[in-house]
Specification:
Distance between the termini: 74 Å
Largest sheet: 8 strands, antiparallel, barrel
Order of helices and strands: HEEEEEEEE
Shape: elongated
Strand order of the largest sheet: 1-2-3-4-5-6-7-8
CATH superfamily of the largest domain: Quinohemoprotein amine dehydrogenase alpha subunit, domain 2
Number of strands: 8
Number of domains: 2
């Protein structure tokens, strides 16, 4: 084999190798994407700082502006706790809460929370954003117009 044939053969081998590597990479990409099943309860774990704003329209005794801040701890298995402060129509009330949540594969979810000492059960719909670092929440109970944003604290920080 002369030098020209050797160069031609090496070029063909290089081209074939590049085509094979490209085909392999393109073949793996859909598989990797297919294995990403979205979100689950485990997506929501850690401690979040939460800020709530809105209004209560019912019951009449509680009707008025609502605001709150809390620290929420999600366990990744569908249970969370919170501690914070709310303002109900201008009256400050320290609270503790415990609840359950369910995360859907599309990174939406729902929760139910028991708020003490108010003795109130609340329900909400949420969307997980920023790779599990932020929640956008809407309280879904009749008589409420409350939206919330919760942001994850530094990794590993738990209250």
């Amino acid at each position: 084999m002369n030098a020209k044939e050797m160069i031609m053969k090496c070029s063909i081998v290089r081209i074939f190798t590049m085509v094979a590597v490209t085909a392999l990479a393109l073949g793996i990409a859909p598989t990797a994407k297919a294995s990403n099943k979205g979100c689950s309860n485990d997506t929501l774990h850690g401690t979040f700082a939460d800020k709530d704003n809105g209004f209560l329209t019912a019951p009449p005794a509680m009707a008025g502006p609502f605001a709150g801040v809390s620290m929420q701890n999600y366990d990744g298995n569908g249970v969370f706790t919170a501690t914070g402060m709310v303002s109900l129509n201008g009256s400050l009330v320290p609270i503790t809460s415990k609840g359950t949540y369910t995360v859907n594969p599309d990174c939406t979810g729902t929760y139910t929370i028991e708020i003490s000492p108010i003795g109130l059960t609340a329900h909400g719909f949420f969307v997980i954003a920023d790779n599990g670092n932020e929640l956008h929440i809407l309280v879904t109970d009749p008589g409420t117009v409350i939206s919330c944003t919760a942001r994850k604290l530094s990794p590993g920080r738990v209250i």
